[in-house]
User: Fold this.
Amino acid sequence: MGHTLLTNQRNLTGTIQVPGDKSISHRSLMFGAISEGKTVVDNLLFSEDCLHTLAALRQLGVPIQVDEAHQHVEVTGVGLDGLQATNQPLNMGNSGTSTRLLMGLLVNQPFPLTFVGDGSLSQRPLKRVTDPLQLMGAKFEENEGHLPITMAPSKGLSAITYKLPVASAQVKSAILLAAIQADQPSVLVEKTVTRDHTERMLQRFGGEIKREGLTLTVTPKPHLTGQHITVPGDFSSAAFFLVAGLLVPDSTLVLKNVGLNQTRTGLLKLLKCMGAVIEISERADDSEPTATLTVHQQALHRITVDANDVALAIDEIPLVALLATQATGQTVITGAEELRFKETDRIKTVSEELNKLGAHIAPTKDGMVIEGQTPLKVIGKQNVDSHGDHRIAMMLAVAALITEGQVDLQDAEAVAVSYPTFLTELERLCGGVIA
Ligand SMILES: O=C(O)C1=C[C@@H](OP(=O)(O)O)[C@@H](O)[C@H](O)C1
Ligand SMILES: C=C(OP(=O)(O)O)C(=O)O
Assistant:
């Protein structure tokens, strides 16, 4: 397992183009595969997670042409009834999104399918997806609530009226992808608003979905039409540089073409509450809005974060914790229990690893209590560990930039799950100080 040595910095200055959005990349491959005609995807994210989705679809007989140098992909849609059986398991790697969305997408096939994943993914909860799919008529031959799972050949799917028990875009999307193949319209009620990329893309490919408050009604529409999708830069990847720009003395960073879908940008609202000013320019809107973000180092103050905030910033909460260690006052995060079911238990890994650098973070059942104005400082060199979690690795790399002393980041290569070039980008901005 690789490690990376980082030291504290001043004056992080530069322009960054973060890679394509992970959530939208997964969805464009999946919708392209089950549509009729060609789907062209520009700026697809070539990260480990998205490559697991791509490989699984190819394994099911979907022709996908890849030009990785230009982040360009062409998917020849085979339609929902054109997928081919496979006698090998579909390997989901580390990717919760691939697993949950593909289970919904593939639930109505006339052949069995087995899903497997790595050690971390095999611990993550799947009953939240298999329960509603079973209510729709799906049968599972092997199902302990986590991978490996085998889905039996389908005997047809019934519509569902379902109140989501968790705030999860993956669960919502799995049900929506199954519901387009059901016999009648289905109705889903969200617990709170979560990212709506599936809803937007379904409409773009010719599906019918309506939202009224937290209620979604989706009409069966198994025949969709291929599209040209340009994937915006990933807000969740941009967030690491936004936070670095806010924390590292004398910094100015410009982030180009960042996806600003409001169901993803809860971090911007939280930053505003902390007193930060982020400049937004060059706004554009295809079926997903984008803009350029400019950030300078600034003083911040404490906030409280609740379940509604968490749902709109779910992958950015580790960064909120880091920001809070440097803000004035005590920050309290509640309603974040879902963090315990990510690639690691992020309440545990965030508090344990940042505390190694001098932070005072007390984990709670559903969040964290974070003391502000705690300078990060180590004597000599301190090891911190990503525990194989890409977002923990990147958050700790940003923390290292403001830590006095040397930080040795273990298992740094986990970044490849969502942002393979993250450390190279960081090194470029720092002027080549990463060993
Ligand atoms: O739908 C998606 O693409 C995602 C939804 C979120 O997961 P949950 O739905 O489990 O909260 C998020 O954490 C993940 O990175 C991507
Ligand atoms: C939780 C994440 O992804 P996934 O659920 O797809 O593994 C993430 O990217 O932070």
Summary: DSSP finds 13 helices and 24 strands in the chain. Residues 3 and 103 are 35 Å apart (CA to CA).
